Records
---
Amino acid sequence: MRLLRRTAEAGRLRIPVEQATRVIHAATTGATLTLIGEEPSKQDLTTSARLRDTVIASVTTHSPASSGSDLASRALAIDAALETALTAGPPAAGAGVTLRATETALLREWLQHLAG
């Protein structure tokens, strides 16, 4: 999740971090179970590499949002940065999230809505 959060902060994630985590977990679990269930002589070890490439392409963008035209990526980037700030521990003096919990929850809801 930390890697996905950094990806979102860079404006490269198409979907929220939690959803991307579930998609990646489901895909890797499915690939693993498929390979385990096959006879060793019939296993196609390229299956997991193809699935990996497909999943990465489905949850990430090709380049960071740079022009403001990709509102979804920017909303996800802000949400990921907010999540990082909230989980980074006690803020330094004058830094950190100054929103109340209810304000933070509302902002995150709006950002996730904008992200689609």
Note: The chain is about 65% helix and 0% strand.
---
Amino acid sequence: MSDLALSTKSPGRLGRSVAAILIGFATVVVLSTATDAILHALKIYPPTEQGLHDPLLILLALAYRSAFTVAGGWIAARLAPAAPLRHALILGVLGLAAGTAGVVATWNLDLGPRWYAIALAASGLPLCALGGWLATRGRPR
């Protein structure tokens, strides 16, 4: 039986499930946005309206966003009331959806290479799964 089906027997469990996923999502968004803002303020990144076209800076952004996505999956799994890996995967699906929306919204804006936005969208699910797996290693089932 799925953990969402089980949660109907315990309303508090559904709330904790939703909270775990939302906190994982917020972690990724807040850390990514804050790091972007710091790098812009330090003039490491160009002004936002110029986009990001330097390959090394793009790789830097991909690296820290990947780490933050793994962290979000880890947090979602650790906070989950049951089925921790499932919570990390749900977060990954949300990340895939948000990333895909980002690809569509920025496709013709020349904010950077299109592969970068596609890579962010495509990597969300496997990175959250990695975070969930790391969170569950060594935990009793």
Note: The chain has a mean pLDDT of 92.
